[in-house]
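STRUCTURE:
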């Protein structure tokens, strides 16, 4: 009799185990390859994590790893394979892997990260996600940095002639093609290497968003700045999660997290980037670095050289079964709508 009751008790306990496991806390190991103070971590990823923990009443939490688990270009595969659970990625760091994501990287799209990021997220949801370029991971949201600008240590840049032959650090993606079209020698390097490249004279300059001169402490090294209204380019990002880890989260908590993802995440990222862009402009001014505002003639020169990039991109997207013209047209339409608000 005792053995029968013991067996029933053990069976009852066993039946409870799955339920207990389903309600257990989920800890997401967060990977980052920029310093913890960088806005990608401090103003985007970790605030997202904090709100995610609150929305799930503490059932989903984040643990920021002390250092990156892999080099930046290998981040997507690291998350896919479970070396980390949550991380941001730069699409351009893995040339050839992403094509549709270049839609938000063209010159002269929007004046702010907020507008470009929200528009990009909307187009990603409607059109880009079908391309399945992030296969194997869960995309929490996509966004871009602020409009890219021109920084160098050699001379003022007022025209295309001033750019010829300059060795320019770029982050990959469409900006690599932009840099070539403008006559520079592009150097594809991760952002954290920027200070070393400039300080050692390996690079003559950088194409970077305004924010980066603060984030990577570049102000003391810079001699000349050229601001291009609307941006010379943009770089696209995604915040991704390990698929198995996502599936381990209860449907109710997934629903709560989804409210923080997508457009809400793009808006968060855009606002954060624009705020630091403003601070960075002030830092450049305080350092008395000469600033050139690109003239209408210079802008026309840039447009003339970069215009063929659109058709080349359309062809790449078509080869992968997508409609690049529809994607870019939709993005520009969303930007126009958001810019009026």
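SEQUENCE:
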């Amino acid at each position: 009799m005792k053995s029968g009751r013991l067996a029933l008790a053990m069976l009852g306990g066993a039946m409870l185990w799955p339920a207990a496991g389903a309600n257990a806390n989920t800890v997401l190991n967060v990977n980052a390859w920029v310093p913890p103070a960088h806005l990608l971590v401090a103003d985007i990823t970790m605030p997202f994590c904090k709100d995610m923990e609150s929305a799930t009443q503490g059932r989903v939490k984040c643990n920021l790893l002390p250092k990156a688990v892999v080099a930046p270009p290998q981040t997507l595969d690291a998350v896919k394979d479970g070396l980390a659970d949550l991380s941001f990625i730069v699409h351009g760091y893995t040339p050839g892997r992403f094509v549709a994501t270049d839609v938000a990287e063209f010159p002269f799209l929007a004046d702010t990260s907020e507008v470009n990021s929200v528009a990009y997220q909307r187009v990603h949801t409607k059109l880009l996600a079908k391309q399945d370029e992030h296969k194997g991971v869960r995309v929490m949201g996509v966004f871009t940095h602020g409009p890219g600008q021109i920084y160098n240590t050699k001379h003022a840049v007022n025209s295309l002639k001033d750019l010829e032959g300059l060795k320019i650090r770029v982050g990959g993606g469409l900006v690599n093609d932009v840099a070539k079209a403008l006559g520079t020698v592009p150097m594809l390097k991760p952002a954290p290497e920027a200070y070393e490249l400039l300080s050692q004279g390996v690079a003559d300059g950088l194409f970077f968003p305004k924010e980066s001169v603060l984030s990577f402490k570049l102000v003391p090294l810079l001699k000349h700045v050229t601001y291009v209204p609307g941006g010379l380019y943009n770089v696209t990002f995604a915040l991704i999660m390990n698929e198995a880890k996502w599936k381990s989260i209860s449907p109710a908590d997934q629903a709560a997290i989804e409210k923080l993802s997508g457009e809400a995440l793009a808006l968060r990222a855009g606002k954060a980037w624009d705020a630091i862009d403003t601070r960075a402009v002030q830092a450049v001014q305080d350092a008395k670095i000469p600033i050139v505002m690109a003239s209408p003639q210079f802008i026309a020169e840039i447009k003339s050289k970069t215009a063929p990039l659109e058709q080349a991109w359309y062809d790449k997207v078509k080869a992968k079964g997508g409609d690049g013209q529809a994607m870019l047209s939709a993005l520009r339409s969303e930007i126009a709508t958001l810019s009026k608000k």
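REMARK: Confidence is low (pLDDT under 50) at residues 1-23.
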